[in-house]
Amino acid sequence: MRSFPLSLLLGATWVALTSAVKFDLMAATSEDMQVHQRCFSQYVPADTKVLVTINVGDGYNQRVDCEIKQDGEQSNVFGKKRDIKNDYTNAFDTLQDGEINICLSNTLDDGFVANPSYFREIDLEINVGQEAKTIEEITKTNHLPNLEEQTRVLEAMVDDILNEMSYLKGREAKLRNTNGK
Questions:
Q1: Nearest Cα to 68, choosing from 98, 102, 43?
Q2: Sheet bearing 62-70, strands edge to edge
Q3: How many domains are there within the chain?
Q4: InterPro entries annotated for this entry (predicted)?
Protein backbone atom coordinates (compact mmCIF):
# COMPACT_ATOMS: atom_id res chain seq x y z
CA MET A 1 0.00 0.00 0.00
CA ARG A 2 1.35 3.43 -0.97
CA SER A 3 1.55 6.27 1.46
CA PHE A 4 0.79 9.82 0.37
CA PRO A 5 2.24 12.89 2.04
CA LEU A 6 -0.24 14.52 4.40
CA SER A 7 0.30 17.93 2.79
CA LEU A 8 -0.72 16.55 -0.62
CA LEU A 9 -3.82 14.95 0.90
CA LEU A 10 -4.74 18.16 2.74
CA GLY A 11 -4.19 20.22 -0.41
CA ALA A 12 -6.36 17.92 -2.51
CA THR A 13 -9.12 18.00 0.09
CA TRP A 14 -8.93 21.81 0.38
CA VAL A 15 -9.60 22.06 -3.34
CA ALA A 16 -12.54 19.68 -3.01
CA LEU A 17 -14.11 21.57 -0.11
CA THR A 18 -13.68 25.15 -1.27
CA SER A 19 -14.09 26.70 -4.68
CA ALA A 20 -13.32 30.36 -5.21
CA VAL A 21 -13.14 32.53 -8.29
CA LYS A 22 -12.60 36.23 -8.88
CA PHE A 23 -13.64 37.83 -12.17
CA ASP A 24 -15.07 40.91 -13.86
CA LEU A 25 -18.77 40.66 -14.72
CA MET A 26 -19.51 42.79 -17.77
CA ALA A 27 -22.68 44.88 -17.68
CA ALA A 28 -25.35 44.47 -20.35
CA THR A 29 -28.75 45.86 -21.13
CA SER A 30 -31.74 43.84 -20.00
CA GLU A 31 -32.28 42.63 -23.61
CA ASP A 32 -28.75 41.13 -23.81
CA MET A 33 -28.69 39.65 -20.31
CA GLN A 34 -28.84 35.97 -21.35
CA VAL A 35 -25.63 36.37 -23.36
CA HIS A 36 -23.70 38.10 -20.57
CA GLN A 37 -24.90 36.00 -17.62
CA ARG A 38 -22.13 33.99 -15.89
CA CYS A 39 -22.98 30.65 -14.29
CA PHE A 40 -20.84 28.38 -12.14
CA SER A 41 -21.71 24.87 -11.05
CA GLN A 42 -20.45 22.31 -8.57
CA TYR A 43 -21.67 18.80 -7.84
CA VAL A 44 -22.87 18.38 -4.26
CA PRO A 45 -24.31 15.20 -2.69
CA ALA A 46 -27.67 15.15 -0.88
CA ASP A 47 -27.98 16.46 2.69
CA THR A 48 -24.80 18.53 2.47
CA LYS A 49 -24.32 22.03 3.87
CA VAL A 50 -23.34 24.63 1.24
CA LEU A 51 -22.20 28.18 1.95
CA VAL A 52 -22.07 30.64 -0.96
CA THR A 53 -20.40 34.01 -0.41
CA ILE A 54 -20.43 36.70 -3.11
CA ASN A 55 -18.57 40.01 -2.81
CA VAL A 56 -19.40 42.67 -5.40
CA GLY A 57 -17.13 45.60 -6.24
CA ASP A 58 -18.25 49.14 -6.93
CA GLY A 59 -20.02 50.09 -10.15
CA TYR A 60 -22.34 52.92 -11.04
CA ASN A 61 -25.62 52.51 -12.91
CA GLN A 62 -25.38 48.71 -12.65
CA ARG A 63 -27.39 46.06 -10.78
CA VAL A 64 -25.93 42.62 -9.94
CA ASP A 65 -28.47 39.81 -9.48
CA CYS A 66 -27.86 36.24 -8.35
CA GLU A 67 -29.80 32.98 -8.52
CA ILE A 68 -28.74 29.76 -6.76
CA LYS A 69 -30.50 26.57 -7.75
CA GLN A 70 -29.94 22.83 -7.90
CA ASP A 71 -30.69 20.68 -10.92
CA GLY A 72 -31.82 17.12 -10.43
CA GLU A 73 -35.00 15.11 -10.33
CA GLN A 74 -36.66 18.18 -8.86
CA SER A 75 -35.24 21.63 -9.47
CA ASN A 76 -34.72 23.51 -6.20
CA VAL A 77 -34.14 27.26 -5.88
CA PHE A 78 -32.04 28.05 -2.80
CA GLY A 79 -31.73 31.77 -3.28
CA LYS A 80 -32.51 34.75 -5.48
CA LYS A 81 -31.00 38.11 -4.67
CA ARG A 82 -31.67 41.23 -6.69
CA ASP A 83 -29.31 44.22 -6.57
CA ILE A 84 -26.43 42.92 -4.45
CA LYS A 85 -24.72 46.01 -3.05
CA ASN A 86 -21.52 44.78 -1.34
CA ASP A 87 -21.81 41.16 -0.31
CA TYR A 88 -24.31 38.33 -0.15
CA THR A 89 -24.11 35.10 1.83
CA ASN A 90 -26.44 32.14 1.51
CA ALA A 91 -26.20 28.90 3.51
CA PHE A 92 -28.43 25.93 2.75
CA ASP A 93 -28.64 22.14 2.86
CA THR A 94 -29.02 20.26 -0.41
CA LEU A 95 -32.09 18.07 -0.81
CA GLN A 96 -30.72 15.66 -3.44
CA ASP A 97 -27.57 14.75 -5.34
CA GLY A 98 -26.91 17.15 -8.19
CA GLU A 99 -25.27 20.26 -9.58
CA ILE A 100 -25.56 23.52 -7.68
CA ASN A 101 -25.74 26.36 -10.23
CA ILE A 102 -24.88 29.92 -9.25
CA CYS A 103 -25.80 32.42 -11.97
CA LEU A 104 -24.84 36.09 -11.83
CA SER A 105 -25.93 38.92 -14.10
CA ASN A 106 -25.01 42.61 -14.25
CA THR A 107 -27.76 44.80 -15.72
CA LEU A 108 -27.25 48.41 -16.79
CA ASP A 109 -29.80 50.99 -15.75
CA ASP A 110 -32.23 52.13 -18.45
CA GLY A 111 -30.76 54.69 -20.83
CA PHE A 112 -27.17 53.42 -20.64
CA VAL A 113 -25.38 51.70 -23.51
CA ALA A 114 -23.16 48.69 -22.81
CA ASN A 115 -19.42 49.24 -23.21
CA PRO A 116 -16.26 47.71 -21.68
CA SER A 117 -16.03 50.38 -18.99
CA TYR A 118 -19.17 49.03 -17.30
CA PHE A 119 -18.30 46.00 -15.18
CA ARG A 120 -18.34 44.85 -11.57
CA GLU A 121 -15.59 42.87 -9.88
CA ILE A 122 -17.02 39.66 -8.39
CA ASP A 123 -15.44 37.42 -5.75
CA LEU A 124 -17.36 34.12 -5.48
CA GLU A 125 -16.57 31.49 -2.84
CA ILE A 126 -18.36 28.16 -2.41
CA ASN A 127 -17.78 26.07 0.74
CA VAL A 128 -19.21 22.57 0.96
CA GLY A 129 -19.63 20.06 3.80
CA GLN A 130 -18.11 20.36 7.24
CA GLU A 131 -16.14 23.46 6.31
CA ALA A 132 -19.37 25.27 5.39
CA LYS A 133 -20.92 24.26 8.74
CA THR A 134 -17.87 25.42 10.67
CA ILE A 135 -17.66 28.75 8.86
CA GLU A 136 -21.38 29.34 9.42
CA GLU A 137 -20.99 28.62 13.16
CA ILE A 138 -17.94 30.88 13.39
CA THR A 139 -19.73 33.78 11.72
CA LYS A 140 -22.58 33.40 14.23
CA THR A 141 -20.09 33.71 17.09
CA ASN A 142 -17.96 36.36 15.41
CA HIS A 143 -16.05 37.26 18.59
CA LEU A 144 -13.38 34.53 18.19
CA PRO A 145 -9.81 35.56 17.42
CA ASN A 146 -8.77 35.00 13.81
CA LEU A 147 -6.25 32.25 14.67
CA GLU A 148 -8.87 30.29 16.60
CA GLU A 149 -11.31 30.60 13.68
CA GLN A 150 -8.71 29.22 11.28
CA THR A 151 -7.86 26.41 13.70
CA ARG A 152 -11.50 25.35 13.92
CA VAL A 153 -11.86 25.36 10.13
CA LEU A 154 -8.71 23.25 9.74
CA GLU A 155 -9.88 20.88 12.47
CA ALA A 156 -13.19 20.39 10.67
CA MET A 157 -11.35 19.74 7.41
CA VAL A 158 -9.14 17.10 9.07
CA ASP A 159 -12.25 15.41 10.49
CA ASP A 160 -13.76 15.36 6.98
CA ILE A 161 -10.55 13.84 5.60
CA LEU A 162 -10.48 11.14 8.28
CA ASN A 163 -14.15 10.28 7.70
CA GLU A 164 -13.58 10.06 3.95
CA MET A 165 -10.47 7.89 4.42
CA SER A 166 -12.40 5.57 6.76
CA TYR A 167 -15.22 5.28 4.22
CA LEU A 168 -12.76 4.56 1.38
CA LYS A 169 -10.92 1.97 3.49
CA GLY A 170 -14.18 0.14 4.25
CA ARG A 171 -15.24 0.32 0.61
CA GLU A 172 -11.84 -0.99 -0.55
CA ALA A 173 -12.10 -3.93 1.89
CA LYS A 174 -15.62 -4.71 0.68
CA LEU A 175 -14.53 -4.64 -2.97
CA ARG A 176 -11.44 -6.74 -2.18
CA ASN A 177 -13.62 -9.36 -0.46
CA THR A 178 -16.07 -9.36 -3.37
CA ASN A 179 -13.22 -9.74 -5.87
CA GLY A 180 -11.60 -12.55 -3.88
CA LYS A 181 -14.69 -14.80 -3.88
A1: 102
A2: 38-44, 98-108, 62-70, 76-81
A3: 1
A4: Emp24-like, GOLD_dom
Question: Which pTM does this prediction carry?
Answer: 0.64
Yes or no: say if 160 and 130 are a contact pair by the CB < 8 Å rule.
Answer: yes
CATH of the domain at 140: 2.60.120.680
Q: Supply the pLDDT for residue 91.
A: 86
131 alpha-carbon distance from chain centroid: 11
Contact 126, 49 (CB under 8 A): no
Provide the strand spans (E) within 14-165.
Answer: 18-26, 38-44, 49-56, 62-70, 76-81, 87-93, 98-108, 119-128
CB 109 within 8 A of CB 72: no
Q: Which one, of 69, 41, 53, 32, lies nearest residue 122 by Cα? A: 53
Distance CA 10, CA 15 (A): 9
- The C-alpha atoms of residue 87 and residue 69 are separated, in whole angstroms, by 19
pLDDT in tens, the chain (181 residues): 334 343 433 343 433 456 788 999 999 888 877 777 899 999 888 888 888 999 999 988 899 999 999 987 788 899 999 999 888 988 888 888 889 999 999 999 888 888 888 899 999 988 888 766 666 665 665 555 666 667 777 777 787 788 888 888 888 888 888 877 6
Quote the domain boundaries for residue 108: 6-180
Show Cβ contacts of residue 27 under 8 Å, excluding neighbours closer than 6 positions.
36, 59, 62, 106, 107, 108, 112, 114, 118, 119, 120
